[in-house]
Amino acid sequence: MSESRFFRVVIVTWVTGIAVALSLLALDCMPHRRGLASAVQSFMQMAFGGVVAGAIVPIVAERFWAFPLGAMVLGGIAFGLWWFTARQPAPAP
What we know:
The protein is mainly α. It has three helices and no strands.
């Protein structure tokens, strides 16, 4: 196996593990409605993937430097959303 392919396999495996861990954390937000939380999380993940594949990739495919810039912008948006929700007070049980 070439070195490049090895690193791709490692990165995909790591990202998949992170996605599973985040999915479990999302399910813990609504312990009495795990089915609903799972369905909404899955829908949002697929919808966002469709928007990225259908709208954002054709825009950034024109230039090579636009791919990492687009990834940084999406990462910044995700960090901002996480930061906003982390500052919210915890709901009462």
